[in-house]
Amino acid sequence: MFGAGDFPLAGDVFGEASLLFNALLAAMRGDGGAQEATNTPKPALDCCVMLVFAVALFVFNWGTRWAVLEPLAVRVVALEPRNGLQGRREKFSQSASEAIFYGTSFLIGLCVVPRQTWIWPSALWYVGKTSGVIDPANPHAFLSNELKCYILLYLGRYFQGLVSVFLEHKRKDFLEMLIHHSVTVMLIGLSYTHQYNRVGVVVMLLLDIGDVPLHLAKLCKYMNRDGAADVFFVLFGVSFFLSRLVVYPYVVWSGTVEGYAIMGVYGGVEWTAVALLYVLLALQVYWMAMILKVALKMNNGHSVEDIRSDSDEDEGEKKKKA
Length: 322
Description:
Strand content: under 5%
Helix content: 55-70%
Number of domains: 1
Structural class: mainly alpha
Strand order of the largest sheet: 1-2
Shape: globular
Number of helices: 10
Largest sheet: 2 strands, antiparallel
Number of strands: 2
Radius of gyration: 21 Å
Distance between the termini: 50 Å
Order of helices and strands: HHHHHHHHHEEH
């Protein structure tokens, strides 16, 4: 993909990472208005910066789990003799870590994405873009440092997630999560390298909204706070439905119909991106069906017993019962 002379020096990589991260911190503090979009993708350098972010996030993820969250779980996770404790503390620390990751990512996106001048109407996501052409002089090629950092951090988070998913407590929807992480990395990477950042960051922001109440509901459940778990689950269901089955389908429609109408023609890159959007949409429909099953149980007077991707009963306990 890159030539032998394309790889940047370590100093350049860490210097660029520091520059982007400081710009992001300034944006989150509200220093001034939106930064001028002057930065363009630099494939080799950006790939290295993304990997630095991925390693840093991986270390933070597992470091906080082992040093803070798992010891905390020993104090707060409730015992349930009928299911045993094996895996319960591990799942608590996993959900707490994901609540931190998704919550922080959503706050960053909320600070960065809506302030962009092209955020609405959605036609601005495509106006001036030529299908299949990567033009360094095109306005779509230019990013503010804050937006570039958000994209590379997001890619780094999902890249480390692809590794972490093999190390975590086994989920019931392990395959679906693996597909989701892989498709997200491909979709955002494709939008970044081919100058479709505008629609790409909108997708990024939408995918983070519902996950915070989901993991808060799980944490409450592990602490046997069923009433609070039910409240957070309702908030999760509403936010998930609105963001992923109302707004996100509009983005899919926009990428399929509106973008094609404005740009006049789609090539292989564009149709590949559209196909990936539909794969993500299919996953949202699948997960919404699981949410509705839990909602029906709640309507029948039961507390939240299974929230989207894992069950309270440990796999080892199930095998013992079998």
